[in-house]
Amino acid sequence: MEVNVDRTGPCEATISLTVSSEEFERQAAAVLKHHGRNVRMKGFRPGKVPLGVLEKQFGEGARKETAEHFLGMALREAMTEHDLQPIGHPQVDPASLEVTKGEEFSHSFDVNLKPQIELGDYKGLSIESELEPVLEQEIESAVESMRQSNSRPEQLEEGGLEEDGMALCKLAWKVGEEAIFEREGMRLSVSDDIPGVAEGVWSEHMTGVAAGAEVEVPMTVPDDFEREDVRGAEGICRVEVETVFRMVPPTDEELWKLAGAEDAEAFATRVREDIERFKAQREESRVEGSLLQQVIAAHDFDLPDAMVEMQLQGRLDALRGQLTEQGQSEEEAARQAEEEAPNLRTSVEKGAKAFFLVSRIAEEEGVKVSDADMTGELAQIAQRNRASVEEVRDYYRENGLLDQVAIELLERKVRTLLRESANIAEPG
Questions:
Q1: Which contiguous run of DSSP H or E holds residue 311?
Q2: Any idea what DSSP says for residue 251?
Q3: Cβ proximity of 24 and 104 under 8 Å
Q4: Residue in 174, 169, 171 with CA at minimum distance from that of residue 220
Q5: Beta partners for 235?
């Protein structure tokens, strides 16, 4: 087999191969013999089917498999002899792998290559911290938020819906005499944002309503409603109030217990520590992101054009699909996607640069993602989704997402490395 490599660009190459008919036929015969060991055919003992018979029944498939074998050999030889570092798998048209018996096999295919990156400074970068101290107002706000989120509903025997209360209702949208949408058992509050109802109108009609009340609120059918024929039509939102509740906040002692504190002082300390921890994590994320952007800005290198175009096309297809789902025509969606293409291209190129730089830094620093790292990440995903680690692993494997998890873990490690090696100055 003869293999040639033509560098067609900084991140692209064309690999050409030629295999003599004799070499190709020998390999094709070997493939047939290998598969013939397991072929059961009437009139022949297992593994003893003549090659000519196998050729008639399985020859076409064996020849394609042989062609793929030589393509793989050519790629591996090119990687070894020419120090190529391909990205992804070459795209080969199956129809081009048909080989006529007795003729040599010639083929060429394009590969995307990893960019050649000469690393500059990425350690010891300077950045100023924006971490702010915890204020008393923040503690008070956090306590109030905790109090509201842990309030419990208590049914009102008398009185109407309060600003922080909740009502169990039956809701219907009506255009003329037709109910175009109905839903029972809805939990609604005065502050809800109801599609199609003007700001302030909902709270004006719902404040103070009592159990058994029937309320009609003016509305306009939203433009993204499932039925096109009623979009934009004037109608009413009819609410039948079944039960009204007021929200009873927990006592101070109950709040302390929820936070695992014994008294007011311990509770305030716990709340302060939680806010400090949240602020520190948010600041670490900001610092890491800013440092990575510094590294990206300091490194200029070529990207694989074909990879960028493929990712850009995927983003554009997704955007067009999203816009049509929202009710836009295919023509309008295509026009808006075309307008957004430059911004999407910038985003794709920025993401690609980050990916290759992270990979290059990880290679330089010997940063790797271990099996334990993967198991730990999948365990966290499982816990968030109330599933077992095995279920999550199977789902990610079946949907080809395990590599993406590994990439995200690697970036997280590199971002941490950038932050821990940086010179972070205290706020001025």
A1: helix 305-325
A2: P
A3: yes
A4: 174
A5: 219
Q: Could you please report the per-residue DSSP string of 153-177?
A: EEE-SSS---TT-EEEEEEEEEETT
- Cα 72 from Cα 19, distance rounded (Å): 13
Q: Let me know the angle formed at the C-alpha of 425 by 421 and 427, rounded to the nearest 5 degrees.
A: 145
Q: How many CA atoms lie within 13 A of 337 on its CB side?
A: 20
Residue 95 is given by DSSP the state G
pLDDT at position 29 is 85
Q: DSSP per residue over 402-415, as a string?
A: HHHHHHHHHHHHHH
Distance between CA atoms of 124 and 126, rounded to whole angstroms? Answer: 6
Query: For residue 171, is it left (φ>0), alpha (ψ between -120 and 50) or beta?
Result: beta
Q: Catalogue all structural domains in the chain, each as residue range(s) with its CATH number.
A: 2-113 (3.30.70.1050), 152-248 (3.10.50.40), 262-425 (1.10.3120.10)
The SS3 of residue 205 is helix
Rounded to 5 degrees, φ, ψ at 333 are -65, -40
Handedness of CA 17, 21, 27, 33 (dihedral sign): positive
Residue 143 and residue 271 in contact, taking contact as beta carbons nearer than 8 Å: yes
Kindly report the pTM of this predicted structure: 0.75
Q: Is-contact 112 86, C-beta < 8 A?
A: yes
Least Cα distance to 16 among 30, 2, 31 occurs for: 2
Q: Give 96-116 as a DSSP string.
A: GG---TTS-EEEEEEEEE---
Q: Which residues pair with 170 in a beta bridge?
A: 240
Beta carbons of 248 and 151 less than 8 angstroms apart? yes
Q: What CA–CA distance (Å, rounded) separates 336 from 61? A: 46
Phi and psi (nearest 5°) for 246? -105, 150
Query: H or E stretch including 312?
Result: helix 305-325
Tokens (6 digits) for 8:
């067609």
Instruction: Please write the tens of the pLDDT for every residue from 390-419.
Output: 999 999 999 999 999 999 999 999 999 999
Residues of the chain with pLDDT under 70: 36-57, 59, 94-95, 428
Residue 4: HSE in the Cβ half-sphere, 13 Å Cα cutoff: 8
Distance CA 1, CA 340 (A): 47
C-alpha angle 400/406/419, rounded to 5°? 150
